[in-house]
Amino acid sequence: MKIKKNSYILAIESSCDDTSAAVLCNDIVLSNIVANQEIHQKYGGVVPELASRAHQQNIVPVVQQALEQANVDKKQLDAIAFTRGPGLMGSLLVGTSFATTFALSLDIPLIDVNHMQAHILAHFIKKEARQEDGRRKTEDERLNDSTNKQINNFKTKPKFPFICLTVSGGHTQIVKVNSYFDFEVLGETLDDAAGEAFDKSAKILGLPYPGGPLIDKYAENGDPNKYPFPKPKTKNLLDFSFSGFKTAVVRFVQRNVKENPKFIEENLNDICASIQNGIVSILMDKLKKTVKLTGIQQIAIAGGVSANSEIRKQLKDAEERFGWQTFVPPLEYTTDNAAMIGITGYLKFIHDKLDNANALATARLKVDE
After folding, report:
1. Which residues pair with 29 in a beta bridge?
2. Is residue 339 a part of any domain in this protein?
3. Could you tell me if 178 and 367 are in contact, meaning their C-beta atoms sit under 8 angstroms apart?
4. Strands 162-167 and 19-25, how do they pair?
5. pLDDT per position as a tens digit, 235-261
6. Residue 56, class by beta-carbon neighbours within 10 Å (0-12 exposed, 13-18 middle, 19+ buried)?
7. Which residues lie closer than 8 Å to 203 by C-beta, 6 or more apart?
8. Domain limits for position 125
9. Where does 58-168 show beta strands of DSSP type E?
10. Cα torsion at 330, 331, 336, 340 (round to 10°)?
11. In this structure, are residues 359 and 110 in contact, taking their beta carbons and an 8 Å threshold?
12. CA dist 307 → 129, 167, 336, 339 (Å)
């Protein structure tokens, strides 16, 4: 297939409770619209049925806004990428159905994307340059400007092979990335994910959903070593387990609240700092073992929990102490978003890894599938 100089990809993400659409010109993000679903907050977690209904309401206006912000007409699109899985089946079906129908109506390729691969490949998004007056640069300016080589304050794109720690509310994995399309899982959680450990711990403390960012916020003014929590042991040195950690937090809180009903209120900062330090320490210990076993010192993180300030800090410390090269995605590409689906779709598009309109949504999909 002959690839044009400038390829326009519309990307759609609907794996959980965020409806997102993005438009990319090659590897440059022109727009990245995300519609959040605040209705889940009062339930303390995502309600699948409510999520799928909200996606149905949001997807058309979100796609329209993405095209308008990118100043791209639908007739200019060269392909449509969408999240096939993993995720909530009802949510995935909304995005899959819309993308399939839209691609058929425009007679352009449909590209299915593995959500977990997309989190990792978000590192290959080229940040759009802007003029000093804040104006978005024209297409030629964007694609020819050498300043695009410096994406942001982080290092440039990692080189293969590299190690990626993918951490979110549903997944915690250590992946060896050999190429854009070759992923090898070295370790993964045996039960709960790190993001779930953050959110459930926050719920125990009476914090609203999603609680992970709030633990990060309160931890800023707390003592991370005030309350030590146990580190789980796993048969495979690179696997994770957070169920025991969550149980330890529950028992710790119950025991202390029984002795002092105001314990949480009086020690919230220290409790949050200690919980955060416990979770991040587990993640960092596994990364250190991975580097020792593989010899690979290019380390990336991805997923919603990669927005956590403590893990970013400890990664930077490890870079200085151990000589690692660390790669951290911009905050807007850490949580679920369509830009990461778009960059993955673009890479598949230029490497002629296209799929037909029969691609089906699947709730369970491994990163190496």
Report:
1. 24
2. yes
3. no
4. unpaired
5. 999 999 999 999 999 999 999 999 999
6. middle
7. 44, 209, 211
8. 8-154+333-350
9. 79-85, 110-114, 162-167
10. -10
11. yes
12. 23, 10, 12, 16
The SS3 of residue 300 is strand
Here the tokens at position 81 are 């990428």
- Quote the pLDDT of residue 165: 97
Domain count, the chain: 2
CB-CB contact of 116 with 173 (8 Å): yes
Q: Output the six-digit token pair for 82.
A: 């969408």
Identity of the residue numbered 11: A
For residue 284, what are its two tokens?
A: 């960092």
Which residues, other chains included, contact 140 with Cβ-Cβ below 8 Å and sequence gap of 6+? none
User: Do 108 and 207 sit in the same domain of this protein?
Assistant: no
Q: Identify the segments of the chain with pLDDT beneath 70.
A: 1-4, 36-49, 127-156, 355-358
Q: Are 259 and 265 a contacting pair, CB within 8 Å?
A: no
| Token digits of residue 274 | 């200690």
- Please tell me the distance from the alpha carbon of residue 177 to that of residue 31, in angstroms, as a whole number: 27
**pTM value surpassing 0.85:** yes
Cβ atoms of 329 and 299 closer than 8 Å: no
| Domain CATH for 283 | 3.30.420.40
Q: What is the sign, positive or negative, of the torsion defined by CA atoms of 127, 100, 53, 168?
A: negative
Same domain? For 32 and 86 the reply is yes
What is the per-residue pLDDT for 354?
Answer: 78
Q: First and final CA of the chain: distance in angstroms?
A: 24
